[in-house]
Design brief:
The chain is an alpha/beta fold and 355 residues long. It contains eleven helices and 19 strands. It folds into two domains: 169 residues, Alpha-Beta Complex (Quinone Oxidoreductase, Chain A, domain 1); 147 residues, 3-Layer(aba) Sandwich (Rossmann fold). Helix 3 packs across helix 9 and helix 4 packs parallel to helix 5. Bound molecules: NADPH dihydro-nicotinamide-adenine-dinucleotide phosphate and zinc ion (ZN).
Length: 355
């Protein structure tokens, strides 16, 4: 079967031949339909993030997949059922985080991640997976199934943000997304269409003619150009916000988030920056957090419950927006375009088989 693999840091993704996998007991065989690409894939390709599987000299990419069960292999799944795989797998049998169904909370070294760290991904015509990590998705959403994993990242982030504010009456009205990449725009769409914040903002560094900036206003958000108004000046220019969702990976935004927040607000950090030393007024930040009851938290990955919530959310996103997100789906023979598509395409994916 065909697969897309890379030697991280040493080259471009290449089309390779691999034997079709045989499911082990408890695993199903899945025929891959579509696999999305995000910033993490580009970081893996560049060698900045992730790791090869033990003993391998390349990594099959892909962690945002949707497929169809080819062989349930004695599991409770049905042949022909559409499924979305979760990303983390246990490296060994004894792992309390996986036993609790919370692999997303496992520390480094206690998990592998398919297509990212220590395990081959889903960019292959077939893959196998334990059935417990395959989340059924309705047939009418299957074409959009590669969006479930990124949405699940935001489901988890919001669950943790809300939990951090659960000790008091918190009634957020305004939200700010930092970043107009795929994760930022999907999250903005969730804020507008599902959570129905009264006012939303999205920060980028593109001219107003850029397609993503148009999407921000079509979604109902106010675009903020960080070259004119840094995140820390949003309270002066617009308003202090109840929730900040950072999806830029720009390390200064972790600190500017605290200044952008209204009293009792919460900031969630998603970006994965490289080391970068710069000056911050630590005293002011510390004081802001304390005197205004602010919270700042980091979050990574997501578990099965977040995937299930993401499937519900996907069904609620406006059709015009999901159509926009599928305009960058490329056939397997044009897979390179999916990695090299210009900035005008919000989200790209590779189609291994027609949905
Ligand atoms: P992208 O890199 O595609 O998007 C980042 C966006 O932020 C780009 O639009 C970029 O603009 C913008 N940006 C960067 N710096 C600034 C700045 N100083 N001012 C304004 N805008 C800025 O990534 P994704 O959308 O795929 O993901 C977002 C982040 O989340 C990444 O860091 C990724 O690694 C991380 N991530 C984290 C996950 C988790 O579980 N925690 C899961 C998935 C992703 P431009 O294009 O103009 O440079
Ligand atoms: Zn992803």
């Amino acid at each position: 079967m065909k697969a897309i693999a890379v030697d991280p840091g040493a080259g471009e993704p290449a089309l390779v031949e691999r034997p079709r996998p045989d499911p082990e007991p408890g695993e199903a065989l899945v025929r891959t339909l579509r696999v999305g690409i995000d910033g993490t894939d580009h970081e893996v390709i560049a060698g900045h993030h992730g790791d090869l599987p033990a003993g391998a000299d390349d990594l099959v990419l892909g962690h945002e997949a949707v497929g169809i069960v080819e062989d349930p292999n004695g599991t409770a799944l049905e042949p022909g059922q559409f499924v979305v795989p979760t990303v983390r797998r246990r490296p060994d049998d004894s792992n309390e985080f996986f036993e609790r169904g919370e692999p997303d909370m496992a520390p480094s070294g206690e998990y592998v991640e398919r297509g990212i760290v220590g395990a081959h991904g889903f960019m292959a015509e077939y893959f196998t997976s334990p059935a417990e990590y395959l989340v059924p998705i309705p047939a009418e959403l299957a074409a959009l199934g590669f969006l479930v994993e990124p949405i699940s990242i935001t489901e988890k982030a919001l669950e943790h943000a809300v939990a951090s504010r659960s000790a008091f009456e918190w009634d957020p009205e305004s939200a700010l997304v930092l970043g107009n990449g795929p994760l930022g725009l999907i999250t903005l769409a969730m804020f507008e269409s599902v959570l129905e914040f009264d006012r939303t903002y999205c920060l980028g560094r593109r001219d107003r003619s850029h397609p993503t900036v148009k999407l921000v206003s079509e979604l109902g958000g106010t675009y903020v150009d960080s070259r004119e108004t840094p995140a820390s000046e949003i309270p002066a220019e617009h308003e202090a916000v109840d929730l900040v969702y950072e999806a830029t990976g720009h390390a200064k935004h972790a600190f500017e988030t605290v200044e952008a927040l209204a009293p009792n607000g919460v900031g969630v950090l998603l970006g994965v920056p490289e080391p970068w030393e710069f000056e911050v007024d630590g005293g002011r930040l510390h004081r802001e957090l304390v005197l205004h009851n602010k919270a700042l938290l980091g979050t990574v990955n997501s578990h099965r419950g977040h995937f299930e919530a993401a499937i519900d959310t996907l069904a609620q996103l406006p059709d015009w927006f999901t159509e926009e997100l599928t305009s960058g789906v490329y056939d397997l023979e044009n897979y390179q375009d999916a990695f090299d598509a210009g900035d005008d395409v919000v989200k790209t994916a590779i189609e291994f088989d027609a949905v």
